[in-house]
Design brief:
Layout: E1 10-17, H1 21-32, E2 37-40, E3 54-55, H2 57-66, E4 78-80, E5 82-87, E6 90-96, E7 107-109, H3 112-125, E8 129-131, E9 134-141, E10 146-152, E11 155-166, H4 173-179, E12 188-197, E13 205-210, E14 217-225, E15 228-236, H5 247-257, H6 259-265, E16 269-280, E17 289-290, E18 293-295, H7 311-331, H8 340-364, H9 370-386, H10 388-399, H11 410-433, H12 436-459, H13 461-493
Parallel strand pairs: 1-2, 1-11, 2-8, 5-13, 11-18
Antiparallel strand pairs: 3-7, 4-7, 5-6, 9-10, 10-11, 12-15, 12-16, 13-14, 14-15, 17-18
Helix pairs in contact: 1-3, 1-7, 2-7, 5-6, 7-8, 8-13, 9-10, 9-11
Length: about 500
């Protein structure tokens, strides 16, 4: 509990905790409307943020709205026009960034030590009152105000505000105090990255790699320009059975073992140490608004569990939060109902997509079935090679350009089923052509794998119960969105 005192060190309309892209972007938008903002961060800028550094087209469009694209240094950042996907060391698809109307048809790789500082300085130049090396300790909310206790240079100070914003990342203090618990391990992704110099290959191409060793997850090479690159690997924290591999070791193993990645690196050399970070993904049970309280970006769990994408959702949620806060300031109301328009836009724009991403992740977190998941990935890629529309959807989902619910459209599902039948048919024909001896061997391998899965269920009964329960829970969440969409379409048509 905060000790109640008459001493108030400073007061504002909105206290934003966390000066990363989301917090600084929101502060900038509010300052433009003459709303008094205090922006605090536990670190000093410029500071690094461990990340893949890729900024996709949607996020670039948001940076244009902020005015970041007008900075002199912005055009010098590395432009990405293409993406290649590798499976077990072989390139299986290489395509241009899908074109979506209204947003750039390219990405950029911008190290976060640069990008975050740009947006932070934009907030300062917009008149935002900023405090670095200031950490939130606690806060209390009553009908009239927010009373926050912060620590600055070892001294406790009190900041009062009409509204508090949690923009302090996946380990958000604002969210933890509000929810009363830390994010669940089932909602976490772990990732590590290293920087390399003197790499080979095109500088405008991002590479994504998949193998059974890194699944459920992937590893990447994102060029930062001038022969340098961000190389890393990310994986779901909770898997079945539990993955005991340390990600630092896994990254080094993949760099040495994957021929395609090794060729891309060539004689490249690591710069600095491998660094890691946790990401908390979307959980529909966690509220993102309360009386005089909002959560944005990573603090709200707005991270796509399929690709670890967070920067675009952070910037989008900052702009949407600003839209709501403007109305709150206009009417002088900051209670939960007044903040509901922010929750509504997140519901409309993101929750369906994030729920479906979680559903897919819940399936593939079962590593015993990795051969099945890898085979399914091969089928999806095979279809993408011969179907441009299919490729645009699949690639768009992976790049965060298309909502994941595009994958459950009737046309996409039908195309996938057709490709599955072709794949099975051709595979069966090939096996039949090899003769009776091969048939018996194939049956034996299938039987051995089935027995392996059964033994795994016997070894981890609780884990399988949780796995199935997670699938059912996500299925219920998705079903509620589908029912809501059907109702809305019926209302519009009637």
């Amino acid at each position: 509990m905060i000790k109640i005192t008459n001493k108030v060190d400073c007061h504002c309309d909105v206290l934003i905790v966390g000066a990363g892209p989301g917090g600084s972007a929101l502060a900038t938008y509010l300052a433009r409307d003459n709303i008094k903002v205090i922006l605090i961060d536990s670190q000093s800028f410029p500071r690094d943020k461990v990340c893949g550094d890729f900024v996709g087209p949607v996020a670039l469009a948001e940076l244009q709205k902020l005015g970041i694209a007008g900075l002199d240094e912005y055009p010098k950042t590395n432009l990405i026009n293409r993406a290649a996907l590798y499976l077990d060391g072989q390139e299986i698809i290489n395509q241009s960034i899908p074109r979506i109307e209204g947003i750039p048809f390219y990405g950029r790789v911008i190290p976060r030590i640069i990008l975050d500082d740009w947006i932070f300085k934009k907030a300062i130049n917009s008149g935002v009152q900023t405090y670095e090396n200031v950490r939130l300790k606690n806060y209390e909310i009553d009908q009239n105000m927010v009373r926050a206790e912060v620590l600055e240079k070892g001294k406790t100070k009190i900041i009062t505000a009409k509204l508090i914003i949690g923009a302090d990342g996946s380990s958000s203090t604002v969210a933890r105090i509000y929810h009363g618990v830390k994010p669940s391990a089932t909602d976490k992704i772990l990732a590590v990255r290293a920087y390399y110099k003197h790499i080979n290959g095109p500088q405008d191409q991002c590479d994504l790699f998949f193998t059974k060793d890194s699944f459920p997850g992937y590893y990447w090479l994102f060029p930062t320009g001038n022969g340098k690159a961000n190389i890393g690997v990310g994986m779901v924290l909770e898997t079945l059975p539990k993955n005991e591999t340390h990600l630092n070791e896994l990254l080094n193993t993949l760099i040495n073992k994957d021929k395609s990645l090794s060729a891309r690196i060539g004689n490249g050399q690591a710069v600095g140490k491998i660094a890691g970070w946790p990401l908390s993904t979307y959980n529909p049970k966690n509220k993102i608004i309360g009386n005089r309280l909002m959560l944005i970006g990573d603090a709200a769990g707005l991270i796509n569990s399929l690709n670890g994408e967070g920067i675009q959702y952070t910037l989008l949620s900052a702009r949407w939060a600003a839209d709501t806060i403007r109305q709150c300031a206009k009417h002088g109301a900051y209670h939960k109902e007044a903040l509901k328009s922010y929750d509504d836009v997140i519901e409309e724009k993101l929750r369906y997509d994030l729920a479906l991403s979680n559903m897919i992740i819940q399936f593939i977190r079962n590593r015993t079935l990795n051969p099945l998941w890898m085979e399914l990935l091969r089928i999806l890629v095979a279809r993408a090679k011969v179907d441009d529309k299919y490729a645009a959807i699949a690639g768009g989902i992976l790049a965060g350009l298309q909502p994941a619910n595009k994958a459950i459209s009737p046309q996409f599902i039908m195309s996938t089923l057709v490709q599955c039948m072709l794949h099975i048919g051709m595979g069966s024909t090939a096996q039949l052509m090899k003769g009776p001896t091969n048939w018996i061997a194939q049956l034996g391998r299938s039987s051995n794998y089935a027995q392996h899965v059964l033994r795994d269920i016997q070894r981890h009964p609780k884990g399988y119960v949780n796995w199935v329960s997670g699938i059912a829970s996500n299925g219920i969440e998705i079903s509620s969105h589908i029912i809501k969409d059907v109702k809305n379409q019926f209302i519009k048509s009637s």
